[in-house]
Amino acid sequence: MTEATQDILVHTEAGVTTITFNRVDKKNSITTTMYAAMADALAAAQADASVRVVVFQGDVAVFSAGNDIGDFLQQPPATQDAPVFRFLRGIAGFTKPVIAAVCGPAVGIGTTMLLHCDLVYAGDNAAFSMPFVNLGLCPEAASSLLVPQMMGYHRAAEALLLGEPFMAEAAQEVGLVNRVVPPTECNAVAQAQARKLAAKPLSALIETKRLMKQGQAPQVLAVMAEEGASFGRMLREPAAREAFGAFMAKRKPDFSNC
After folding, report:
1. Of 50, 82, 175, 233, whose CB has the highest number of CB atoms within 10 Å?
2. What would the pLDDT profile of 20-52 be if each residue is shown by its tens digit?
3. CATH class, range 2-183+202-209
């Protein structure tokens, strides 16, 4: 079965639902409509007993540039029911295996969503970044909890406070990525691993994932909600207004009064 929206493609075959970012001309930047489509696709995959694995993938040159800034400014997430938060809760609470194939830039939520995937395969051109501070904002997707757990505090501080990109090999070293492959092979590697998982007993996959995540699942949701509240408040403050105004005007931001 294949379903298509303009910017998100959802294809289900042989127990694997593949969700593809399909907005390459805009570097797969994510709009509110795209978040809603992905949240709906995850809910459908969760409810469908024939679906055993979900795969997220982008283009060979770009995974996702993160939020579409213009769309984000027009439709900022006002409540916890906003599509972006529905998507984050959906991927964080998804009980079946989730795989990601990442090539090129993975910015902001393009990186933090990977914290909720079970397997991540990266092209050797992948570049991960979480530049929330540079936009006058705070982390999201429970990344303020999960990134220090994964990387250790000092490397997490470098990634989250400076917001500078780190490449695929560094991501593999800290455990964010399972394997680095040539970009042209990345999606195929992820699909091959998905087929292996789809051939296994679903009950065993779900229970194993539950047992691995049960110790931190409530904390993840609590931190995600706290981050969301802070994010919404900071979005209205001077630093974010300056950052987004500078971005839209294509100038360097001035945070001297922030």
Report:
1. 82
2. 999 999 999 999 999 999 999 999 999 999 999
3. alpha beta
Residue pointed to by tokens 């789809």:
198
- Show the DSSP H helices in the chain as ranges: 32-47, 69-74, 83-92, 109-112, 143-151, 153-157, 168-174, 183-198, 202-213, 217-235, 238-249
Ranges of each domain in the chain: 2-183+202-209
SS3 225: helix
CA–chain centroid gap for 176, Å, is: 12
- The rounded Cα 169 to chain-centroid distance in angstroms is 19
Q: Which residues pair with 101 in a beta bridge?
A: 57, 121
Determine how β-strand 16-21 pairs with β-strand 105-107: unpaired
CB of 140 within 8 A of CB of 130? no
The encoded tokens of residue 90 equal 């959906």
Q: How does DSSP assign 21-39, residue by residue?
A: E--GGGTTPBPHHHHHHHH
The answer to whether the predicted template modeling score (pTM) of the entire model surpasses 0.85 is yes
* Strand partners of residue 257: none
